[in-house]
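Usage

Read records sequentially. Each one opens with the input sequence:
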Amino acid sequence: MAKGFKLTKSELKLTQNRKYTAEASGRFSPRITVKADITNAKRLVSKVDEALMAGMAEVAAVLDDALIDAIRSKWPNGDDIVETGNLLDSSSVVLSGNTIEVINTAPYAKLIHFGGYITPYGNPFAERIYIPPRPWVTAALEGSSGQPGIDLAAIYEAAFRKVFR
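and closes with the structure output:
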């Protein structure tokens, strides 16, 4: 059971009813009915649900901040990812139940993250240009390119435990 959240005997509320019947045939039929009041068990489940959602919400918020910091940072090659702000503006962290999704709708987000070659303005006569990778998601999560990295499990656990204090 979570630390700081206990069900006492008085909260558990077990009730019992006893009914004894003796039949003419000599058969003795004791009937004992025990009922548990699960109100507090429901309260515990509700508290766990609240803690789960608090943990996910905190992870989403910290992840969003870390991704923004990674996009805004200078990369080891001296490049700055942000030129127009579109990449930053098109990035979002979406929390849906127990799933967190990082979405970036900028058409060139994959190229910036993984690097690659482009042909300027689609001109077949122009020389291809290499765009170096600037993996801001990896940097934010694992810590690289000047980013400290984040321990999602520790953030989740801290937020989860805070609900039970």
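Summary fields computed downstream for this record:
- The first strand starts at residue 14 and ends at 22.
- The beta strands are 14-22, 28-36, 91-96, 99-104, 116-118, 129-131.
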